[in-house]
Each structure stands twice: as C-alpha cells, then as structure tokens.
Amino acid sequence: MSDLELPKGITIHRDKLRIAFRPPNEKNQWKRSLGIPPTKANIKAAEQMLNAIRRDISLGQFDLAQYFPNDPSLKKDERTLGAVIQEHFIKAKKGRVKGSTHNTYTIRAEWVIENYGHIDAANVTPKEAMELREGIISRSPSPELASFRLWLIRFAVTRAVRALVLEEDRFGPMLDSVESKSKALTLEGLHKGIESNEVFTIDEAERIVKACTSESRKRLVTFLFWSGLRPGEAAALRREDICLPYIIVKRTLTQNGEEQSPKSGRARKIYLPSSARLALEQELRTHDSDRAWVTSMGKPYTSSRLFTTKHWRGILNKAGLAYLAPYTTRHSFASWMLKAGEPESTVAAHLGHTDTAMIRKVYGKFIPDAKPVWTLDDPTKIEIVKNSMISKS
Known about the structure:
The protein has helices at 40-59, 64-67, 81-93, 99-116, 126-139, 143-162, 202-211, 215-227, 231-236, 274-284, 309-319, 328-339, 344-351, 357-363, 379-388; strands at residues 10-13, 16-21, 30-33, 242-243, 246-249, 252-253, 259-260, 268-271.
C-alpha cells in the first residue's frame, strides 16, 4: 500500500485524514476528521477505527462520544437558544446584579426560553432569526419589554460566541436594531417615562396619609413620600445611618429579605426634607430597635414589602384614589421636586442615580420648560460689564 493508497471510507480533507460511515436510521453518511496527517501508520489506525465503528453499528451499540468525545453534535443541547440564555445570561448575571434585579431578569428570560428556547442557536438561518425578532415584538405587551427580550438574546449569544460554545453569531443584524440598549432592567418601569397620572399629587399624598389607620403607618407613608427612598432602602435604614437632617443610604432589603448595598452599588448621603425628617424623628422615639422603621408589632421589616397589596389598596380606597403601587411614593417625590424647580442633578443624587440621564428620561414631563434669561439684557448688569472692560489703549 502506497502512502496515498486509501481504504474505502477514508479520504484526505484539508491535509487531514477523514472517515465516513452511516449510523443507524441515518440517510446520509457522517464524515468526521481525525485531525491527523495521512501517513502510512495513521492510515492504518484510521482503517482500524473505521472497522470498529462499522462493527459497533452492526451490533447496534455505536456511541459517537466513545470515538469523538468533543464532537460538536454532542453539544447540540448546549447550543439551543434556551441553554445559551440559561448559561450565558441568567447564570452570567448571577452575583453581578442585585438579587431583586436578577429575579426580574430570570422571569423575563423564562418567557423567551419557553417560547423560543428550542431554536438551534448554532445553525439558525437569517429567516428564522427574523421570524424570532418579529415574533417577540408582536407578542410583547410593550415596546420596552420587546426591546429587553431582544437585548437579553443578544447579550447571551455574544457571550456564547466568546466562550466558544457557538462558532459564530448567526443572528447577525436581526437583533441589532433593538430600540432600548439599556444595560440593566430597573424597577423604574424599564426606563419608561412617567406620566402625570402615574404619580400622586401632594394633595393626594396628604389624603393617603390621613387614610392610614395608625400613627406609625402615617409616619411611614409620610417618610416614603418625602424622602424618595425605595421601600427596601427605608426598610433597611438603621439608627447608625441617621444624623439628622442627613441620612446615609448604604443598604437595602430585597423581596427575599436579603440585605444588600443600594441599587447603585454605593452608599449616598442625602439631606431630608423637613416632612420626612419630622416623621423619622417621631418614629425613632417610639421604639428602641436598631432599625429605623418597624412593623405594627414593633419588629423590623423582613423584606422590601412594607405593605400588602390588600392593605395598600384599602388605604387608597379610603382616600378615594385609584390604585398605584407603593413604589409610586418615590416617583411622586421626584415629580414634586422637579416641579418645584430643584436642579436635575440634585434630584438624581438624592434618588441614587449616577447622572441626570435617567431623570430626564423617566421624569422629563415634570421638568419645567426653561425660559432663557440673558444677563446682558439687564441694563445695570451690562453697565458693570462695560466698566470692567474699559479699553486700556
């Protein structure tokens, strides 16, 4: 046998030996490269492997993994869109975002997995990718949610390619025109702008406080409305964090009762408006708990849920108001401050946002239209400027 004389079923492909065989119930032959050069010894070894495979096939005991443990077809389950999202989005985000945020991520991702998880992410066609995009957009209740679902697929696929689970991103540009490329889903309504009917007015807030059945509840609701804290941040506030008129927001409670750093990841020192300050002072005098706010039983809150839905709805019904979630106290505070003319940067820092972009996007409709005033239109001011710029010639 010469160096180039090959047994039946063995060929040379890209300077490497390749064997061909037909497993049971398969119409076409499978071709697998052995990754070795076509030497006389290697050809003999390839022939022996091929004979062994044929024997196993005839006996009905062929196992591809026994011969090719790293074969891509064995990883097909790892490359379904569902597996990719599970591994490269849900698991990848674990520990990198707050627990409550990760729970929200998981819920959003599970819908995508349930409806589109069967898709072979390694071999999806452009037509299938387009159908996926159109399907998500048409089946999502809002553009914001559709954008988030498309973004999480893009995130997972990109990471899977980097991890070499997928050879390439076969979704291509089909997911690139995502309207909202936010890096994180927040509880601010997916960054959606707040309308005037989605916040309480100051008058309505006063009616809500009046409708509370206990003094402790009245103090808590007043504090939430006038501090702008998230419910979890109020629940986690400790005496050691308080130095009135300032407080330091350095922790929050999740829905599961876990104590974590604030959503921004860092502590912030804020100056409390007088109404929030008075409510907090009065509350601290009623108990000796380490936590600033306690339940009607005098116990610290165990989660960010300060009101049951039934209880909160009852308060609003008594106040004669339509239902809005307890979190609306925070949105209301932001809208009041902006309406009153507080600088966007001040409100952003107080709420714990890194910049004013979120303030403008979420609360933009409450920012008064600025009317430009030129200092040089004031005769007294222009005279001062004139005198300060007298020619020296």
